Amino acid sequence: MKQKIYMLAVALVLALTSPVVMAKETKSAKALLTTEQQIRLEEITRRVEEIKSIDRSSLTREERKELRNELVEMKKEAKAVSGGVYLSVGAIVIIILLLILLL
Fold first, then answer.
1. Cα–Cα distance, 72 to 74 (Å, whole number)
2. Residue 72's pLDDT band (boundaries 50, 70, 90)?
3. Would you state the pLDDT for residue 81?
4. Rounded to 5 degrees, what are φ and ψ at 14?
5. What is the dihedral of CA 61, 67, 72, 74, to 10 degrees?
6. How far from the centroid of its chain's Cα atoms is residue 96's Cα?
7. In 3-state terms, what secondary structure has residue 49?
């Protein structure tokens, strides 16, 4: 019984400290972007704002599809440029459960 409580306490500490560590890493990763990458991210942001301001009701179906594809490509590019590893809450819970079961 004491061992289970000990493992639960360790898992709880790991769960509470890991988001803090990940948050610090993501901030430093953004600071390490080159000027070219920062310029490209700003261009992507401006283009997304332009697309949001467009009246889509006046566009044809093909034009809307092209805009959607453009947004998807820009999203992929922005993720690749900015980097970083993101864990969802569900993934963290699964990891904790696996640690509890294995230890």
1. 5
2. very high
3. 75
4. -65, -40
5. 170
6. 20
7. helix
* In the block, residue with structure tokens 């639960």: 8
pTM: 0.48
- Asked if residues 82 and 56 have their Cβ atoms less than 8 Å apart, the reply is no
Between CA 56 and CA 65, with CA 60 as vertex, the angle to 5 degrees is 80
- Structural tokens at position 81: 């440029």
Instruction: Return the structure tokens found at 62.
Output: 């093909």
Confidence bin at 88 (pLDDT 50/70/90): confident
Token digits of residue 95: 């990891």
CB burial class (10 A; 0-12, 13-18, 19+) of residue 96? middle
* Minimum mean pLDDT range among 4-8, 24-28, 46-50, 92-96: 24-28
Six token digits for residue 61:
């179906």
- Tokens read off for 32: 């390490």
